[in-house]
Give the backbone structure.
Amino acid sequence: MTVYGYARVSSQDQNLDRQREALADVDILREEKMSGRSVENRPVWQNLLEFVQAGDTIRVKSPDRLARNTVDLLSIAQDLSDKGVSLEFVDSPEMNVSTAQGEFMLTIMAAFAQFERDISKARQREGIAAAKERGVYSKPRPKARALTEQQIAEAQERRDAGESVADLAKAYGVSRQTMYNVTHS
């Protein structure tokens, strides 16, 4: 009977320290920096599912580290239960699915979490629509484009020669902040 810990953050620049601390007492800790959008696209999670056996436990800091919606969370819990694997949440032990009460609480809390996300998205859409009506909405900027080492060196030379950060940013198709960061380091 092994206790596995699973820690996940959504992006490479996020920190796993709080989850590591919460899961310090597990036998084996698996960590992943991957979006929670799709369970199938998380290789560390998929690998963990291949290793767990009946009698093992998977411990996670909180339910949102496993899934982003009720259906996925309940599906994961059911799949683990079918394999004889316990699922525990450090932050919410009342939702541990080893009991009928825990499964009920997990279902209710997952539904509330999804409801809140859905309400938040609806509010965001309403806010965007209102801003568009007032003429003050602009589309979100595309993600920052990375500059190559060669482009950074060229931009630095041009900046040293007196060219403005704004002009360089426009020339390389990046934000002024990005250009400032690479030419003032």
Remarks:
- Residues 149-183 form one domain.
- The first strand starts at residue 3 and ends at 9.
- The chain has seven helices and four strands.
- The longest helix spans residues 100-134.
